[in-house]
Write a structure and sequence with these properties.
Layout: H1 7-19, E1 26-33, E2 55-58, E3 62-65, E4 70-74, E5 80-84, E6 100-106, E7 110-116, E8 122-126, H2 147-156, H3 162-166, H4 177-187, H5 200-218, E9 226-227, E10 233-234, E11 261-265, E12 268-272
Helix pairs in contact: 4-5
């Protein structure tokens, strides 16, 4: 499991500030809960190979060291911690079913601990890991996420719904559904509208709003609620981005006053305004 945008943007900044340029002095593995289900542990016996190597790249899910080795990790919300090397980390909450482990990167003054506590978590070491985004378009990279490339991606997807082309696990980029619903509302696009029915202006508006959202999270204009690497719960300031969520179902649309409705798709619910976002089939 990996945090989606925008949480991954926020965690990446914190992790980079903490470990970039640091040399890994030790690697520690600890099992804090046996559990009935065992996590994939094939890379646990390789963690010592990272010792003595400098961190040259990092984000919310990887530590890449000089020489090419990369540790990739997936964790649940709040499952990554940075703490002073002289202090003990906070007590871990044991899970009743899944085996729980911690993998700790030890640096000169701090430790970075990844908590693996559910079947969606993982830890794997690669010798030749490709430092490319998991999704076809990296919307956090302006050189990769261009309007031309975005249009090409949509054209390649046939005539599926716009929400499927963008936000789901088979979509163009990794962004929480609630934020995608907000962007579609801003553009007046129904989440189930077919790609072939979208105008050039629709696509341009969609692209520009995605770029703006990423920029706002990068520069701190927007903050989403999340647990930071120090274990603190950070309150979000993105009230507007949560407009198209379940808590506002049947409440008046801020633009026209019509009740917010929902539609099923891609294994979840999407929220929209039936008047501002007319379905294009």
């Amino acid at each position: 499991m990996q945090p989606s945008i925008p949480i991954s943007i926020l965690l990446t900044k914190e992790i980079q500030n903490a470990v970039l340029g640091q040399v890994i002095q030790d690697m520690q593995l600890h099992c804090f809960n046996e559990g009935a289900y065992v996590l994939e542990t094939l890379s646990f016996d390789r963690i010592k190979e990272l010792v003595g190597k400098k961190v040259v790249q990092a984000n919310a899910n990887i530590i890449h060291v000089e020489g090419g080795m990369t540790a990739e990790f997936g964790y649940d919300n709040g499952g990554i911690r940075v703490y002073d090397r002289k202090k003990e980390p906070s007590t871990l909450k044991k899970t009743p079913k899944t085996g729980g482990y911690t993998v700790t990167f030890v640096f000169e003054d701090i430790c970075l601990m990844v908590v693996l506590s559910s079947w969606t978590c993982r830890f794997k070491i690669y010798d030749d890991y490709q430092l490319v985004p998991r999704y076809p378009l990296d919307i956090t990279d302006p050189t990769d996420f261009t309007f031309t490339r975005f249009k090409e991606w949509l054209d390649s997807r046939g005539n599926i719904a716009i929400i499927d082309a963008c936000a789901t696990y088979k979509g163009a980029f990794d962004v929480y559904i609630s934020f995608m619903n907000y962007i579609l509302w801003m553009c007046g696009i129904h989440p189930k509208s077919k790609l072939k029915k979208l105008s050039e202006n629709d696509i341009q508006c969609l692209y520009e709003n995605v770029v703006k959202m990423v920029r706002d999270f990068k520069d701190g204009t927007l903050i989403s609620e999340y647990v930071d690497i120090n274990g603190n719960k950070i309150c979000g300031n993105n009230v507007s981005l949560s407009l198209m969520t379940g808590k506002n179902y049947q409440k008046p649309c801020p633009k026209c006053g019509s009740p917010i409705e929902s539609v099923k798709g891609s294994g979840t619910k999407h929220y929209f305004c039936p008047c501002c976002q007319v379905l294009k089939k």
